[in-house]
Amino acid sequence: MKKIQEFFWFCAGANVELLRQCPTEQAKYMGIGGTIFFTAVMAGLAGGYAFMSAFDQASLAIPFGIFWGLMIFNLDRYIVASTGKGDGTIRITWMEWKNAFPRLLMALLLGFVIATPLELRLFEKEIDMEIETLKQQKRAEARDQVEVNYNEMGELELKIISLENDVKVKARARDTKYQEMIAEAEGLSGSGKPGAGKIYRDKKQQYEKIEAEYQELKSAQEKKIDRLSKRLEDLQQSRDEEVENIANIANQYDGLMAKLEAFGKLTDRYPTLQIAKWLITAMFILIEIAPILFKMMTERGPYDDMTDRIKHVSKLTEMETISKTNLLVQSNLELSKENQQKRVEAELQANDALLKKIAAAQADIAGAAIEGWKNQQMELARENYEDFVSSKKPQG
């Protein structure tokens, strides 16, 4: 029982270690966790049934049902754990409603998602009967459409009947002439004299003419009838194949979409069923949002104080860590700035000494150049003093 209790605490998103120290809070979180757990179980069953209706494969429906239940469990657990504790009073204020609105909206949608497959399962027999009616309607509509597409068959049948009637009419006319010819030969009509007289020969000639016409007409009409019958047979075969395909498609109309359509028609037809549907949906929505409402209505307890203390200590610890980090960074920046300034000063001093050395060297080089030029000019003056003197005389 203790393990079950702690499992429900975990389902409620509570800190198990802290709840062990708060006996007065344990029942509250056990109830919240139980609601979340059993909602997830119902969601798993609903998801598995929906997947089974869609794919008719238990090997896929069972894993999907488990996955769906775990996903709903995780969402519900997060929603409840992130709701907080409101203002700590049993009264739900407008601000609490406002803060909880996004979570309530998510819970509302989850309630609809969970309720729909279970409603389909609860009214499965009625839905199956409605699906059979829908199948018959779809088959009838499809057959009517097929008949419209194959209007040519009726025209062909009428043409065949007309051709056959023409042959029959000609055959009756031939038979009449034949009877008249035989009656004349036996002396029962016409001249009243038996034997092959002139009237008999006329009757025979008429009979032979109409017999020839009959045979010619019969041959021509039979060819037309054979051609039309072949066309009619092909159309009948094509129509029968389409009707069979339509029947097969209609027989397969028993998936999730068919159940939703049938359920919608049933609720539209029977107001009591619609009321029952909305009551079931409302029940699941209430189950889904109940943990959030419970947390907003419960008074503040020791568990809340302990969690606030832990949050406050953690916040102060982190703020202290951030402050120390900022000081360390600032110190490193100042030290880096000081070292950079020293490097710049050292470089400036080195550059100043180098410039002085360059200036001294340039002065020495200039003095040596002047001294060399002086010596060269004195040497030239010694060798050519007359020219040098004359070039210096003033012009007059």
What features would you describe in this structure?
Helices cover 88% and strands 0% of the residues. The model has no long low-confidence stretch (mean pLDDT 78). The protein has helices at residues 2-11, 16-19, 23-55, 58-83, 94-122, 124-149, 151-186, 198-251, 256-269, 271-297, 302-383, 385-390. It is mostly helical and 396 residues long.
Task: Please outline the helices and strands.
Layout: H1 2-11, H2 16-19, H3 23-55, H4 58-83, H5 94-122, H6 124-149, H7 151-186, H8 198-251, H9 256-269, H10 271-297, H11 302-383, H12 385-390
Helix pairs in contact: 1-3, 3-4, 3-5, 3-10, 4-5, 4-10, 5-10, 6-8, 6-9, 7-8, 9-10
Question: What is the gist of this entry?
Answer:
This protein is 88% helix and 0% strand. The chain is mainly α and 396 residues long.
